[in-house]
């Protein structure tokens, strides 16, 4: 893993992404992180761009017998995206219904945990940058972009340090701009591109969000 790593850690990747996004500085961008890994990255980007930090809550739908492999995703409204793999594999409807119920309940718990007294920031008419630490299948980013687009931003940007080529093909039509530092055809897991890739805890997310907007 270390031999193929491109980024030292999420902080370095966020600084590099922020440099690529400087055209949006001082336009009060809304920087939305997909929790949890992207939250510390979005904090750095929001601070560099003079923007506002918040989260967009989505969750992958796991495959039968392998919950880590995303066959789709769901947002807080219950909207569901199914990947081409899931459609081709004809995943049993009972499994999909169970996953949808389970992950929608998980999203509701996350909203109560991360933002108990604050409504989501309004993307309407704004430059919105959706950040994740990497795209393997792209499923969660699809749901995130769909959720934000429904609220009518002026400009919608996807920003990631690394992505599989296949996921970028899925994502590009859904955003007005896609900023990706590295597109890889040899993609096994997001963590392979980082030398240091620790889990981001719920407590860390809560503390970052409680600290306020990236612009301070």
UniProtKB/TrEMBL annotation:
- Write down the CDD domains for this protein, in alphabetical order: PRTases_typeI
Entries under InterPro entries matching the protein: PRTase-like (IPR029057), PRTase_dom (IPR000836)
Q: Write down the superkingdom of origin.
A: Bacteria
Does Cell division count among this protein's keywords? Answer: no
Q: Name one GO molecular function term.
A: glycosyltransferase activity
List each copy of the Phosphoribosyltransferase domain by range. 14-194
Q: Keywords of this protein's UniProt record, alphabetized?
A: Glycosyltransferase, Transferase
Query: In its UniProt entry, what is this protein called?
Result: Phosphoribosyltransferase
């Amino acid at each position: 893993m270390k031999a193929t790593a491109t980024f030292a850690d999420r902080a370095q990747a966020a600084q590099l992404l922020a440099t690529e996004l400087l055209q949006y500085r001082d336009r009060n961008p809304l920087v939305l992180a997909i929790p949890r890994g992207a939250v510390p990255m979005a904090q750095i980007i929001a601070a560099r761009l003079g923007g506002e930090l918040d989260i967009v809550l989505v969750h992958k739908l796991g495959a039968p017998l392998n919950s880590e492999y995303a066959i789709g995703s769901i947002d807080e409204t219950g909207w569901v995206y199914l990947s081409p793999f899931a459609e081709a594999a004809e995943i049993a409807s009972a499994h999909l219904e169970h996953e949808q119920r389970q992950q929608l309940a998980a999203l509701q718990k996350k909203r109560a945990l991360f933002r108990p007294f604050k409504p989501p920031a309004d993307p309407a008419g704004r430059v919105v940058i959706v950040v994740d630490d990497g795209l393997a299948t792209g499923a969660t980013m699809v749901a995130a972009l769909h959720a934000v687009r429904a609220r009518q931003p002026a400009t919608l940007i996807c920003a990631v340090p690394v992505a599989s080529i296949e996921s970028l093909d899925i994502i590009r039509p859904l955003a007005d701009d896609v900023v990706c530092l590295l597109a890889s055809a040899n993609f096994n897991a997001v963590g392979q591109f980082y030398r240091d890739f620790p889990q981001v805890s719920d407590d860390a997310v809560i503390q970052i969000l409680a600290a306020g907007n990236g612009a301070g």
